[in-house]
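Supplementary Methods, section 5.1.

A reviewer requested that the exact input to the structure prediction be made available. We therefore reproduce it here, unchanged from the version used in the analyses.
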Amino acid sequence: MSTVHAAVDTAGVAAIQDKVKELLLELDRVTTQAGVPIFLAYGSAIGAARDGDLIPWDVDADVWLPHEHHQRFLDDAVPLLGADYELLTAETHDDYEYLFPRLVFRSIHHVYVRVDVFPLDPAPRSRWLAAAYVKGMHLLDRLFFVKRARTDVRAHYSPAKRLLTRTLKVLSAPLPTRVLLRTFRRLQSAGGTRSSLVANSCGSYGAREVFERAWFGETVVTPVFGHPLPLPAAYDAVLTQVYGDYLTPVSEERQHDELVHATATFVEPMRAEGLLP
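The structure derived from this sequence is encoded token-by-token as follows.
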């Protein structure tokens, strides 16, 4: 059903995007200083490649972090963060429900404004095994999520989705969270350093997120909202595999619907909490 007549708060969406851009620049600053490579990912990479900016309705951002640099990211880059920012991880924050790190503002709940740092983990060398690997990792990720997730801060959840999340939380109760976390972390290295394939083990696109390792061997820096930010040099191959024709914008009706969703799900709750002017 179209939401063509629903309200859009463009000023509010722009205000959230300003905060997302601030997070991206802070992440780029500390990773550059620490010598840790990251790459703009998913919609953030599309916006950079197509428009030189965030996609107009995106109220978060995504980056990829190669597995072999993850520990150095935690040890060398994260301590450089300014006082207003923090990195959430499953190990450091008991109330954080994802298995990938997330950069946030200390003063704003992470569901509203964030930059997600997705891992590029070594995948099995066989494409078939790699596809099975990402499906299994996604299942572990979802189980971990439902065990920790708070539905009260997810305004966009329908009653049915809230009920499903709560039901899965009850069903997964016998499985300790620490076991899920330990299993997931061990499997993130299962592909070995010799594999020519990498995958986002926290992704939701299945086999489309099994990439050639060589695609991330080099970085290209491109201006994004006036600042140089990194993309994988083979970003066209990466984005085409995930999305197909990523250079053609979606329809105007779809764009409007996305802005309506951003307004209702993020802008209005943040205004209600006094987080936006």
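The CA atoms of residues 249 and 277 lie 30 Å apart. These observations are discussed further in the main text.
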